[in-house]
Design brief:
26 strands, five-stranded antiparallel beta sheet, disordered C terminus, 24 helices, elongated, alpha+beta
Length: about 775
């Protein structure tokens, strides 16, 4: 229901309720007033009727006394002159309009009469009248005779003692009843009861009568002699009494109806006058909600709605300002004024949609050592450098406005290219734009950058996919220390189903799904077992047995490799300690990663595990690759020296595959180096590799290190290595990695290289199991 209708209906309902209450109160008051008025009329009617009877009684008494006091009348009574008596009675009756005049003896026999059918000598109920009125010279009462009702008085005729009675009375006929009804405004009914049955002798009620429920009556008892009772009933119709009030009520109903109609028109007009501006303002709000803030102010009023419209207009202006500010924050980098990642993604998506067969090149640019600029020169200088770099990239003609700042020191740009050959040239132009030093406060600052490039051809999945590929190319360029790299399919990371292993890897430790495999290490000169390398396997509940290549790279990327290292060290030391206590001491080599070297408490963890398992340090060798030295060589060297101080052996794994082995090998506190399998497997097929291997062995011996060759798969390769003076061999030619049971069975009957193994108790806290995945 519309607001206008609700306002109008609400006012109408309120008015209707008020009118209904008023009309109800008036109607109830009218009914009550009508009832009280009827009772008042009955009271007045009763009083009038009583006074009428009293007036008739006095008039009859006076007339009768005047006749009885007449001397001639008394003489006639004494002489029983009936003619004279009848004439006197008739004259006196006519003078007052009496309907009956009777002279009776003291015994009640008629002597003379006028106006009746009685004959002389007939009995007259004078005694009954006197009984109802009491003793005395006069009496009054009512008499019913021959269907007529009379009001009688009796007066004694004295000479000087009572000698007769004069009875004189008025008849109550229809005329008298109507006169009384006209005077009182009431209906008059005279009823007589004889032997218990009531008959209405005279009544002014309309023919057909009225409903008894509609009549209010007042009963007046007139006479009761023997079995005869005479009563007068005054009545008033409630409907007649209420008629004036009913007419007033109808008038009020008409007034209420007219008021409702008039008020409805006024209410709808007022509601429309209120809701029309509100509707206009609501439309403005809807446009604001849809993001349009240019709606004009359509309501110009001086009342509260005008104030509301003005306030809404001010709010619209404020919201528009805030929206523009929010949009700038959401889609624009506040420092450089370039697009941010969100806006760049939208622009790139639009460019891909409109490419129409033209290739789109995307570049992700990362600045080198920008953090050190902030640390040494301050953030204000860093901000100035970023602003200048942004301006330079945006000034490249091929880029125009398609430039964004993705992170603190990372930018991105895209452009349309005719073919793949132009991608490298475009990337070079971006690097050239950053080649000159940035001048900040008269101080030149050299800036270098690395680019990751990708070319979007027709059918490219999405802009997100392009950005991901550009990031992969950037990572490749940083790893290989190149200025730029172009994305190739070979950079594609593992499939999604392999990534799901990361979530399951933590549960693998909790559910004891990891397994230790052992590959023996053989002393080439004697053929004795010099030790074994511990290799980790994962018995996956659905994928079967997984090798390290299936999950170790992901663990290294997420930092979970530390937890795997702890687990492997703990279980390897426990097994080595068990063999040591059984008199079968064997050195076990465990691989550690650069993440472990970066752990400031790694040496304490190793010492804690050695103390817990009571394992001599000489029975443990930790194998690490040279990549652990690349990022922070000084810190890594301190950690390796701390581990070596524990008496634990250190082995440089995969020697020959990195970039900095020769520069760090002399300083590293390692005991042995392992020549990578790629050299060993090419030993027989390529004479140049034989020279490299021989040189590596001689260099290791020159540094006082044992040399281990891994990946030996043939006896000829083992013989060549023995000729070169290699110390220890490891590979499928001797044995594949085996689970514990198979390794124990393989060791039976084989000779071990003797080892001096003395347990050492280190004074360190037990910190080996205090790191969880949340730490990383």
């Amino acid at each position: 229901m519309a607001l206008r209708t609700r306002i109008a209906v609400t006012f109408l309902l309120l008015l209707a309720a008020v009118l209904a209450a008023a009309l109800g109160a008036v109607l109830a008051t009218n009914r009550d007033s009508a009832g009280r008025e009827v009772q008042r009329q009955l009271d007045v009617g009763t009083l009038v009727f009583s006074r009428l009877l009293e007036s008739n009684r006095r008039q009859l008494t006076q007339a009768a006394q005047a006749v009885s006091a007449d001397y001639g009348f008394r003489e006639a009574v004494a002489a029983r002159d009936t003619d004279t008596l009848a004439s006197a009675l008739e004259n006196s009756g006519e003078r007052i309009g009496a309907a009956m005049v009777v002279l009776t003896s003291l015994g009640g026999n008629v002597i003379a009469t006028s106006g009746t059918h009685l004959s002389p000598g007939s009995p007259f109920p004078i005694a009954a009248l006197q009984e109802t009125s009491g003793l005395g010279d006069s009496a009054a009462g009512m008499m019913f005779d021959k269907g007529r009702i009379y009001q009688l008085v009796t007066v004694a005729v004295r000479s000087p003692l009572p000698v007769a009675w004069i009875a004189m009375g008025f008849e109550f006929d229809d005329k008298a009843a109507r006169e009384l009804a006209n005077i009182t405004g009431l209906s008059v009914t005279l009823s007589v009861s004889a032997d218990g049955r009531w008959n209405d002798v005279i009544s002014t009620l309309p023919e057909g009568g009225m409903r008894s429920a509609d009549l209010v009556t007042r009963r007046i008892e007139l006479s009761k002699t023997g079995n005869t009772e005479i009563v007068a009933v005054l009545s008033r119709s409630l409907a007649d009494a209420r008629a004036p009030f009913e007419r007033l009520t109808k008038v009020l109903y008409v007034i209420a109806a007219v008021s409702l109609v008039a008020f409805a028109l006024a209410a709808f007009w007022l509601a429309r006058n209120i809701t029309r501006p509100l509707r206009d303002l609501t439309q403005v709000v809807d446009r604001m909600r849809a993001g349009t803030y240019d709606a004009e102010r359509s309501v110009q009023r001086g009342d509260e709605l005008g104030v509301l419209a003005e306030g809404l207009h001010l709010m619209q202006t404020a919201v528009q300002t805030r929206d523009q500010s929010i949009r700038r924050l959401a889609y624009e980098d506040t420092l450089t004024g370039l697009m941010n990642r969100t806006a760049f993604g939208s622009a790139l998506r639009e460019a891909l949609r409109e490419a129409a067969g033209v290739s789109v090149g995307v570049a992700v640019i990362n600045l080198h050592r920008f953090r050190r600029i902030n640390e040494h020169l301050g953030y204000s200088v860093g901000d100035a450098v970023l602003t200048e770099i942004a301006a330079r990239i945006a000034a490249v003609p091929s880029v125009r406005s398609a430039v964004a700042r993705l992170a603190a020191d990372q930018f991105a740009a895209f452009t349309k290219l005719p073919d793949r050959e132009g991608l490298h040239a475009w990337g070079t132009s971006l690097l050239l734009a950053l080649a000159d030093p940035v001048i900040v406060e008269a101080q030149p600052i050299d800036i270098s950058a690395t680019l990751g490039l990708v070319l979007a051809v027709e059918g490219t999945v999405s802009h997100d996919e392009l950005m991901r590929c550009a990031d992969l190319a950037l990572d490749c360029a940083r790893r290989e220390k190149r200025a730029l790299a172009i994305y190739q399919e070979a950079l594609q990371p593992a499939a999604r189903d392999q990534l799901s292993l990361l979530g399951e890897l933590r549960h693998a430790v909790e559910r004891e799904e990891l397994r230790l495999y052992f590959q023996p290490k053989i002393e080439l000169r004697t053929g004795r077992v010099a030790g074994a390398e511990v290799l980790l396997r994962w018995q996956h509940p659905t994928r079967g047995l997984l090798t390290p290549v299936d999950f170790i790279p992901f663990a290294e990327q997420t930092g979970y490799i530390r937890w795997l290292t702890r687990w492997t060290l703990d279980h390897s030391m426990a097994q080595a300690a068990q063999w040591h206590r059984a008199g079968m001491a064997l050195n076990l080599a465990v691989n550690i990663s650069s993440e472990d070297i970066g752990d400031a408490r790694f040496d304490s963890r190793v010492a804690s595990l050695l103390s817990r398992h009571q394992l001599p340090p000489s029975l443990l060798t930790l194998e690490l690759t040279e990549t652990g030295f690349i990022e922070d060589p000084t810190r890594a060297l301190r950690m390796l020296e701390a581990i070596a101080a524990l008496g634990v052996g250190l082995s440089l794994d995969d020697f020959g595959t990195g970039y900095s082995s020769l520069s760090h090998l002399a300083r590293m506190p390692v005991d042995e180096m392992k020549i990578d399998r790629s050299f060993i497997q090419s030993l027989e097929s390529d004479p140049e590799f034989a020279t490299v291997v021989r040189s590596a062995i001689e260099m290791g011996h020159g540094l006082g290190l044992k040399v281990v060759a891994e990946g030996i798969e043939s006896s000829s390769a083992a013989d060549r290595l023995r000729e070169f003076g290699c110390d220890i061999a490891q590979g499928y030619f001797y044995a594949k990695p085996m689970p514990l049971e198979d390794f124990v069975a393989w060791m039976k009957g084989r000779t071990r290289v003797p080892i001096v193994a003395i347990p050492v108790a280190f004074a360190v806290d037990d910190v080996s199991d205090t790191v969880s995945l949340g730490t990383f």
